[in-house]
Here is the input.
Amino acid sequence: MVTKPRIIEKARSEGRTLLTEIESKELLKETGISVGDTKLATSREEAISISRQFGFPVVLKIASPDVVHKSDAGGVKLGLKTSKQVGRAYDDILAAINQKHPQAMIQGVSVQRMARPGVEVIIGMSKDAQFGPVLMFGLGGILVEILKDVSFRIVPLTKRDAGEMIREIKGYPLLEGYRGQEPVDVPNLEEWLVKVSDFVEQNPEVKEIDLNPILAYSSGALAVDARIVLETTP
Ligand code: ADP
Ligand code: MG
Here is the structure.
C-alpha cells in the first residue's frame, strides 16, 4: 500500500482541498520537474534570513490556502534586492492581504529566488466528466487569458502526444525562437508533460493542477508558481 504524502494528509486534516504554492511545489518535486527552492517565512526576520541564504534578488508571496490569485491581492513582490526591501515587502504583503482578505488563514510568506526571464508557458490538469484527467498546455500571461491559445490531451500522455500538443498551439513560433530570440528547450517541455501525466495517474486524489507560469529556457525550465486542488473525498 502506498502511504499518502504528508502534505495531503495535513490539508485534509485542516479540512481544505486547495494546497498552497509551497505545498504544491513540494508535492510536484517527486515528478522530477524543477520548481525551485521555496521556503516559508513566518516573520519579517525569517523572510530576511531566508533571502540571505538564497541570495538576492528574491520574490516574496503570500502563503494562504484562502488566496488563490496571489498577485491580484497584492500578495506578490518581485525582484527584491536588499534585506530592507524584503522587510518592507513582507509588511506590505500582509497589509494588503489583511485588507483584501480579512478572513484569510495566513500560513506566512513564501520566499524564492527571482528567476531569470524565460518564455512563460503553462501546464494544467483538470478532470472532465467524460474523459477523466485532461492536460492543457499553452503560452502563459495574456496569451492564455485573452487568446485562449491552448491545447488539450487526455491522460495518459505519450511523448508523441506531448510533442503534438506543444506544436499545435498558435503561439508555437514563439517557442521556436522568434525574431532572434533563443529557441526554448521543447524536448524538455515534452518530458514535463509526460511527467505531469504520470503524476496524475499515480495521484488520483489530485483534482486540478495549475503550473502558471513555467519559465521555459533554451535549456530546461522552471515552474515559479504551482497550485494543486484535491478531490473533495479521498
Ligand atoms: P499568482 O498567479 O497567484 O498571481 P505567481 O506566483 O504566478 O502568482 O506570480 C505572479 C507573476 O510573477 C508570475 O506570473 C511571474 O511572471 C512572476 N513570478 C512569480 N514568481 C517568480 C520568480 N520566482 N521569478 C521570477 N518571476 C516570478
Ligand atoms: Mg501564477
